[in-house]
Structure formats: C-alpha cells, structure tokens
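Structure (tokenized):
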C-alpha cells in the first residue's frame, strides 16, 4: 500500500459544496441588484453571563414537592372549606366542652379536615417508604428499617382514621 503524500492545500469556500449562504447565492446569481456595496452586517454581541440560581435539589424534586403540596391541599378539602365555610371548632351544647370532630358524618370542622389530611399524607409517606425498601434489596439492614417505618406509618394512620370515623358515627371507640 502506498501512502499519499500530505499536501497543504488550502480549501476555498467555493470548493466546499453547500458552504454558501442564501444571501451569497443570491448575490452571485444577481450581481447587478446587490453589487459589492451591499454587505451582510456583522454584529458582535457581548458575552454576558447571567447569574444562575443554584438550588440544593433538582428540578424534578421541586416538581414532586409541588405535587405533594397540591395533593395535601386537595386532601384537606380546601374546596369544601371555601364553598361551605364551616366553623373551625365547635362546642358541645350540653357539656360546654370543645368538639374537634363534628357529630355528623356529612359535615366537618376545619381542624378535622386538616388532621385527616395530615394522617392521609403520613400514610402516603409510609407507602413511599415501602417502595423505597424494595430498592435496598441487597442491603438488608436499610431495607428492614424502611419496611418497619413504612408499615408502622400505614397501620398507625389507618387506625387513627378509623377511630375518627368511629367517633363521628357516635359509637364508642373501646367497649369497656
């Protein structure tokens, strides 16, 4: 095999196919219209570096946090609170003690909706812990801890929500 000798041949712009701009092609085909006096302006833009906002979390995490805040607001029953305008707390007319849970199942106090939404939010965090435990299948110590925290959160919040519904229905929580 023979090697070709290296040549220092300069390549002109006209030798490269497709290197002409549209303006240059029009100028070469119609020199009498544009002539040599009309040239494309060269603008030098200053290089300005705008300051960037550095956040400790990624954009995906910010989106997930925003979704969780939206879900929390929906779980509180914010539309119900705006539309019905219920009282924050109530008073039992017989004993004059404050009521946290509204005696009827169809209505609720503001505090009751907020407490229920916090419990539902904690339950969803428990399910997230259960999901995260599956990622640490080869690290038994972390997986067991995440499973235990997730199961405890789910069971405690489920029990608390069932207790709230039982009290609202007027039944006794513990038959003693």
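Design, position by position:
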């Amino acid at each position: 095999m023979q090697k070709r000798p290296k040549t220092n041949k300069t390549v002109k712009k006209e030798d490269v196919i497709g290197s002409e701009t549209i303006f240059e092609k029009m100028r070469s085909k119609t020199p009498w219209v544009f002539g040599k006096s009309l040239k494309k302006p060269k603008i030098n833009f200053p290089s300005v570096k705008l300051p960037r906002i550095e956040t400790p979390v990624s954009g995906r995490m910010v989106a997930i946090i925003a979704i969780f805040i939206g879900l929390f607001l929906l779980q509180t029953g914010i539309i119900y609170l705006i539309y019905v305008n219920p009282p924050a707390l109530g008073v039992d007319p017989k004993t004059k003690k404050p009521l946290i849970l509204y005696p009827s199942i169809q209505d609720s106090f503001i505090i009751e909706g907020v407490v229920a939404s916090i419990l539902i939010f904690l339950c969803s965090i428990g399910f997230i812990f259960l999901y995260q435990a599956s990622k640490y299948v080869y690290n038994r110590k972390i997986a067991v801890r995440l499973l235990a925290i997730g199961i405890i959160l789910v069971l405690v919040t489920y029990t608390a929500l069932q207790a709230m519904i039982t009290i609202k229905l007027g039944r006794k929580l513990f038959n003693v």
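Reviewer-requested clarification: The beta strands are 90-91, 98-99. The CA atoms of residues 30 and 96 lie 97 Å apart.
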